[in-house]
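User: You have something folded?
Assistant:
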Amino acid sequence: MIFEKAIIAAIEQFGPNIVGEVRLANFLSDMNAYAEYPACKRILRVVISSGVSMKIQTQPSTDFAKVYISQVVHDMSKSHGFQEDLIEYVLYSILNATRPEKERIKQNVGLQYEYIGSEDEFGFCDVRKNGKWGFISSGQKEVVPAIYDNVGSFHEGLADVSLDGKSGFVDTTGKVVIKLTFDNVYSFHSGIAKVVNQGRYGLINKKGKTILPSEYESIAHVSDNMIAICKNGLWGFADLSGKVVIYPQYKKVVKHFSKGYAAVSDGYNKIVINNKGEIIQYL
């Protein structure tokens, strides 16, 4: 509450344009702390040092900026090998944080919300009302009622929501399509999402079907249609159907799959393997 009052005071003193700067600074801080995607730090350095964020901010229209973002995503993915969806998420977030207030959704909406977030690529904003969270559309229509303890953001048409310590997913109409039965969930990417039950990780598909049981100590991000999984302190890989194609046997994943190959470590050697688990080369 003290932080919120400080922001309100800053807006009153410096005007509403400072909102974008505050959101951008907060976003950079959050992404730098997001250990699951260490590439974010490098992406953000490139975005800032190249002046991309300023170029996006000064584009004459959102549509033109999105075209520009698509080109940046293509160039950065080709040059640096970063995940396209991650780069796009970073750039869209910066775009929404720096867009002029008049181009974003109006902040009062009848003064019924305590907080309205930035519009995402689907045209939705997370909102807080009476301490609960939901989503409204860019047309200011409530699409997900503000009844949840927490909400994430929409990815692949679904957003994660939490209530009374349990999490699930809703679609863009507000319908609960995956029941709130998990201790925690992560956003959908490539048609699958990580879920957590009793401190263990698993995978589900967009129908809510378990494709990998919650019995793993850690599950990494999707890379080249493969996903690293950890069990009993050892790493292996599963495909997008949830099939374990490389049984957990390595001490560390040195580099996730890209163009059909990954680098792992057995504790002594770095090893290049293909997506069938065959050893290609010792490094």
About this structure: The mean pLDDT is 76.
